[in-house]
Amino acid sequence: MASPIIVLIKLLFNPNVSNKMLLQMALNRVKAIGIGKIISALLGSLLVAVSSFIRVPQILKLTTKTTEDRISVAEGLSLEGLTLDTINSLIHVIFNYQHKIPFLNYGESLLLGIQNAIIILLTKYYRLHSIHKIGEHCGIKPEDQLDLAASDALKTVGVMIGAIVVFAKLVPSNILSYLEMASIPISIIAKLPQIRQNYRLKTAKHLSDIVLKANVVGASIRVYTSSVALNSNAKRNKNTRSDKILVAGYSVSLLMHSILLGQSIVYDKLKKKDKDVKGIEEKKEE
C-alpha cells in the first residue's frame, strides 16, 4: 500500500482533483496522524539531511590551512572520545535497524558515524606528523611515508569493518539491547576525554563552533522526536522499553554536547578578555 504522502503527491498532479479537495484531504490526514507526529517526522527528515554534511566543518579544520594548524587541531581532539562515540553510533544504528524503527528516527547516527571515522583517520595521520613518524625531516622516503600512513589507515578501517560485522551479525539482539542501554554511560565516557582535553588546554578552538552548536540542536530534536514516539506507543499500549532507552540516551547526549558548547563559549570569552587586558597594559606602557 502506497504512503499517504505519495498518494497526495500523485493527486497534486491529477487535473481532475481540485486544490480545495487536496487541502481538505491534507488537513484530514494531519488530524488523523497528529500534528506532533508530523512535526517530529519533518524534524527527523531535516536532521538526517543536515547530518550528511554536519561534520564537514570539523573535517575542514583537519584539511585546510597549514600542516602546523592541522597538527594543532589533531592534537586538540580526543581519539578515545571519537572512537567511543563512533562505536556508540554503530550500536545505536544496528539496535534501531533490528527493532525496525524508521530510518528517519536514527539515520543521522549512521551519517555521523561515517564522518567520525574520517575525522579519526585524519587525526591519526596528523598525529603521526607531530611525532615525526611522517614528515619531511624524519629521514623517511616520501613513498615510505605514504605506505606508513596507508598502513595505519587500513588498520583503523579494518577495525571499524570488523566492529560492524560483529555487532550486526554475531551479537544477539538481547545483548544489543543491553549495549544500547549502556550507550547512556558510553555517551558520558565518550565526551569526558574531550571535555578534559579542552580543560587542560583552556581552549576549544580545535573544535568547530558550527559542529558544536549543531550537535546541541540535533540532540534537542532527537529528544523531542523520541518523546513523541514514546507517547504515541504508550497511548496504543505498545511496549515502550526501547523508546524509553532512546529518550534517556538522547537526553544524556544533549547534556554532554551542551557542556562542550559551554566550554567553547567560556574559553572564547576568557581569550578575548585576556587580549583586552594585554591591549590596555600595552597602551599604559606607551
Largest β-sheet summary: none
Query: Helix count, per DSSP?
Result: 12
Order of helices and strands: HHHHHHHHHHHH
Beta-strand percentage range: under 5%
Protein name: Solute carrier family 66 member 3
Organism: [Candida] subhashii
Family: Belongs to the MPDU1 (TC 2.A.43.3) family.
Membrane topology: Multi-pass membrane protein
Task: Describe the fold and architecture.
- The chain is mainly alpha-helical.
- The chain has twelve helices and no strands.
- It has helices at residues 4-12, 19-33, 35-51, 56-61, 67-76, 79-98, 107-130, 142-170, 173-181, 183-201, 209-235, 241-285.
- The radius of gyration is 24 Å and the shape is globular.
- The model has no long low-confidence stretch (mean pLDDT 78).
Supply the key terms.
mainly alpha, 0% strand, 286 residues, globular
Per-chain topology:
Elements (H helix, E strand, L loop, with lengths): L3 H9 L6 H15 L1 H17 L4 H6 L5 H10 L2 H20 L8 H24 L11 H29 L2 H9 L1 H19 L7 H27 L5 H45 L1
Helix pairs in contact: 1-2, 3-7, 3-11, 5-7, 6-7, 6-8, 6-9, 6-10, 7-8, 10-12, 11-12
In short:
With 286 residues, the protein is mainly alpha-helical. Helices cover 80% and strands 0% of the residues.
